[in-house]
Amino acid sequence: MRSGLTVKAVTSLALAALCVQGCSAQPAKEKPASTSSASAAPFLGNRDYVLPDSPFTRDDTVVTATCGMGARYAAVTVRAWDPETWQPRAERTFPIPGDAAFTNYAGAKTVNSPLVDLCGMNPDNPSPYEVATLDYMAPRVRALFDLAFTRMAVVLRDPDNKADSHVGYVVSGAGLDDVVRLGGAAGADEQNAVMSPDGSSVWFTYTAEGGGKRIGSRPAEGSHHLSDEGPAAGHGLPLTVLGKPPRAVQADTVHLAPGGRRLTAKAPKVFGNVFDTWTSSGPLTSRSAHRATLLSGCVGVVGWTGDDRVLCRTSTGTFRIMDARTGRASGAPVSVVDPQDGTVAEGMLVSPDGERFLVAVHEPNARRSDDDYSYRRPDFRVVPTTGSGATTSVVNDLLDTYTMFLSWS
């Protein structure tokens, strides 16, 4: 059992998966409320939220997530780590409801959700998104959770109508009544569920009455009414909700700068990597990207090393700090692996001081296997962003092939 769950936890999770809370009655057709007024308020960054004190919110903490499955249950285990000793400080478990979309399989509605990224383990369950490198997957999976890692968003398939999908969320350490289904009208097509930074709402893409795709949100408490938040570019791109008041960006590799005024993002056919923060929710398009900065040679953004510097995985397989204002390299390339040895290095997280970053070194496509699940665990390393200084190995038996590194605060 990969997730390291206790027998007591497994029993609780099995019951939770089988005895989830029922859907409340919904009207045959649901009219969304008017677009939220968030766009009219001044934008504040994620750091302006007051978070509860816990091992998951304290300074200098790395948070990981692992999807574990047994014969009658599935759950996500989230751990807070000390990045000096690589010993866990705390652990939380999020049971996955039996009708949640954590795999896509024949006979069920194909759903886009970062949870499928996290739980994907073999070629029969590929990522629902176009790019599946870790620098793309990590921010997608991070968006499933609120900033304090207390709630996880899910997409739920309707067991009575295989064409329907609705959103909900799971509370950390959920009991029988803690899987919250946010409902939705009959015939709803809701996907890409993610949490708002404060955990007060679930955001998603949905199909509107006229057939167009939109971004919507539902409050986690109260009536769970649908609010329309803006246009969407279909279901093929994930969502990230950030800032105060919350706004959704539909794109990949979304990272908010420390000061909150700019972000990185990536979308097909869009020229650029760094953008001003959104004044409203919507997809990354050529129109919304008209003031973009292109980071030369950047194929994957690992994170910000400062308000004006971004660490990139480059087209040559090295890592390099780029100037977010000019798009030019501001330091020497950092080589993590020898291109001749057949391994690749994928960046995952940048430390809060911008001086180190986490990488996974592995054989190509090593997260999935055609044969079994016994292939070698990646070699996790902490590397100086400047290339000057010692590289250290990250070693703990709980950090395995299926571990996703989500944040370093």
From TrEMBL:
Residues 214-236 are annotated as: Disordered. Keywords: Signal. Residues 1-25 form the signal peptide. It comes from the Bacteria. SUPFAM superfamilies: DPP6 N-terminal domain-like (SSF82171). The keyword Signal applies. The keyword Signal applies. This is Lipoprotein. It comes from Streptomyces violaceolatus. The lineage of its organism: Bacteria, Bacillati, Actinomycetota, Actinomycetes, Kitasatosporales.
